[in-house]
């Protein structure tokens, strides 16, 4: 395990040679990330950091507004929709970008600025997506194997369990959690699941708690074809899905989404999504992808209890400087 490097004065902490262990670990993981995706034939692309509402994740309430020449704009939370545009020309693409979330709550799990690695691939199904994510994790963890604790090394090299959301809810109930089908999983839920299963995928969440463009299951339309990868300590670290390819369903899901309702309440309009919907209006393009919370990987590798110990300069609701 690595010692925490975060202090009340991080600009002084980074002067100490010991503090560079964190920076070196991050560098190793990022290098291994690019090695993996390049080795798999992915093309790295650049995406915007200022966007309309298409740069938001499930909740528009956590976007940072930006004044953009009289237009409503936001600092990007996800490059997903922009990446999907690239797969028309390149079957495999990825990006390494910053993500910004206006999280007012200050705890050990949240940052207002962090690194997000995202990828999209054409003609990929859910099983293929999970296989790729598992191969990615094994590659990057191997690159820092000597920095993992013996316990985490064993977890990283063991079998990664796969469980449906419905089965996970039943397991959580047996372990004493008060949870009903349809609720999103909390940090406490994720902690119990990783204590029981180790590194694991949770699949097929209820459609109401996930992003509008996740593919509805044709076998059970209550759920979407998605997967969250949970790591011990860090919790949800990779979130991905097959994307909805049926244009009519895509439009319907957007129009009935909580996210669009939040956007309208904040003075935005559905027109922000017109360019994205137009991309898939006359074509049936099957695709899948995911977002990797990079600091969550750092947290698992270093064994830190707080995500704030996994970045050199913390950005949360209380800290802007240095």
Report on the structure:
The chain has about 325 residues and is an alpha+beta fold. The protein has one domain (about 10-310): BirA Bifunctional Protein, domain 2. The chain contains 11 helices and 11 strands. Residues about 1-5 have low confidence and may be disordered.
Per-chain topology:
Layout: H1 10-13, H2 20-39, E1 43-44, E2 50-51, E3 65-68, E4 71-75, H3 80-86, E5 92-100, E6 113-122, H4 126-143, H5 150-157, E7 161-164, H6 165-174, H7 187-197, E8 200-203, E9 226-231, E10 235-242, H8 247-255, H9 258-265, H10 274-279, E11 287-293, H11 294-302
Parallel strand pairs: 1-5, 7-8
Antiparallel strand pairs: 2-4, 3-4, 5-6, 6-11, 8-9, 9-10, 10-11
From the structure above, extract its key features:
eight-stranded mixed sheet; three-stranded antiparallel sheet; about 325 residues; disordered N terminus; alpha+beta; BirA Bifunctional Protein, domain 2; globular; 11 helices
Give the proportion of residues in helices: 25-40%
| Largest sheet features | 8 strands, mixed
Decide which structural class fits the backbone. alpha+beta
- Please report the total strand number as a whole number: 11
Please compute the radius of gyration using only Cα atoms. 19 Å
Spatial separation of the terminal alpha carbons: 27 Å
The gross shape turns out to be globular
Tally of discrete structural domains: 1
* Fraction in beta strands: 15-25%
Q: What is the level-2 CATH architecture name?
A: 2-Layer Sandwich
CATH class assignment: Alpha Beta
Strand order of the largest sheet: 1-5-6-11-10-9-8-7
Low-confidence stretches: 1-7
Question: And the CATH topology?
Answer: BirA Bifunctional Protein, domain 2
Question: Mean pLDDT, rounded to whole units?
Answer: 93
CATH superfamily (homologous) name: Bira Bifunctional Protein, Domain 2
């Amino acid at each position: 395990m690595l010692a925490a490097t975060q202090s009340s004065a991080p600009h002084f902490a980074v002067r100490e040679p010991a503090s560079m262990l964190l920076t070196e670990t991050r560098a190793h993981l990022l290098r291994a990330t690019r090695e993996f995706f390049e080795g798999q034939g992915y093309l790295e692309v650049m995406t915007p950091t200022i966007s309309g509402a298409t740069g938001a994740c499930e909740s528009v309430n956590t976007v940072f507004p930006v004044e953009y020449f009289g237009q409503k704009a936001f600092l990007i939370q996800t490059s997903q929709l922009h990446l999907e545009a690239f797969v028309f020309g390149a079957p495999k693409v990825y990006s390494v970008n910053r993500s910004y979330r206006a999280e007012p709550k200050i705890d050990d799990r949240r940052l207002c600025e962090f690194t997000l690695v995202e990828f999209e691939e054409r003609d990929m199904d859910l099983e293929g997506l999970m296989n790729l994510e598992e191969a990615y994790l094994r590659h990057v963890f191997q690159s820092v194997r000597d920095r993992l604790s013996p316990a985490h090394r064993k977890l990283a090299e063991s079998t990664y369990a796969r469980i449906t959301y419905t089965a996970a809810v039943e397991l959580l109930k047996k372990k004493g959690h008060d949870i009903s089908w349809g609720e999103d999983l909390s940090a406490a839920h994720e902690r119990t699941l990783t204590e029981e299963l180790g590194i694991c995928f949770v699949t097929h969440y209820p459609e109401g708690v996930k992003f509008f463009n996740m593919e509805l299951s044709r076998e059970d339309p209550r759920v979407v074809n998605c997967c969250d990868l949970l790591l011990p300590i860090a919790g949800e670290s990779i979130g991905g899905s097959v994307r909805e390819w049926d244009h009519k369903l895509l439009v319907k899901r957007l129009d009935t989404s909580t996210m669009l309702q939040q956007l309208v309440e904040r003075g935005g309009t559905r027109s922000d999504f017109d360019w994205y919907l137009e991309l898939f209006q006359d074509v049936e393009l099957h695709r899948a992808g995911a977002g990797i919370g990079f600091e969550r990987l750092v947290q698992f590798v270093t064994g830190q209890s707080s995500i704030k110990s996994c970045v050199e300069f913390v950005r949360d609701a209380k800290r802007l400087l240095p």
